[in-house]
Amino acid sequence: MDKLLTQKDLAERWQVTVRAIENWRKEGVLTPCKGIPAIRFTQQHIAELEGVKLEKASPLRVRRLENEIEKLKEENEKLKGILTNVMVETSKVITS
């Protein structure tokens, strides 16, 4: 029998928080094994989820896109700062 995965295992695997895994379980996105006293997931179930094309409403896709947006916002702010500095220095040269 394959190793059963914990919520922590999945969180590390998908680079999300355990709370995200808990939310997806409560929403029915993740289905834990039945008949055991702990919350565990089969590797087959997880592989099926990972192999399926993620739809627009998929919580996994939403989370990934939110992370990407946040990184792009940070990069955008850094670039704005660089451009501001370049404009300030350029205006000093032009007015001199």
UniProtKB/TrEMBL annotation:
Protein name: MerR HTH family regulatory protein
Biological processes, Gene Ontology terms: regulation of DNA-templated transcription
Pfam families registered for this protein in UniProt: MerR_1
Entry keyword set: Coiled coil
InterPro entries registered for this protein in UniProt: DNA-bd_dom_put_sf, MerR-type_HTH_dom
GO molecular function, one term: DNA binding
Residues spanning the membrane: none
Domain HTH merR-type: 8-53
The keyword Coiled coil is annotated on this UniProt entry: yes
Coiled coil ranges: 62-89
Natural source organism: Gottschalkia purinilytica
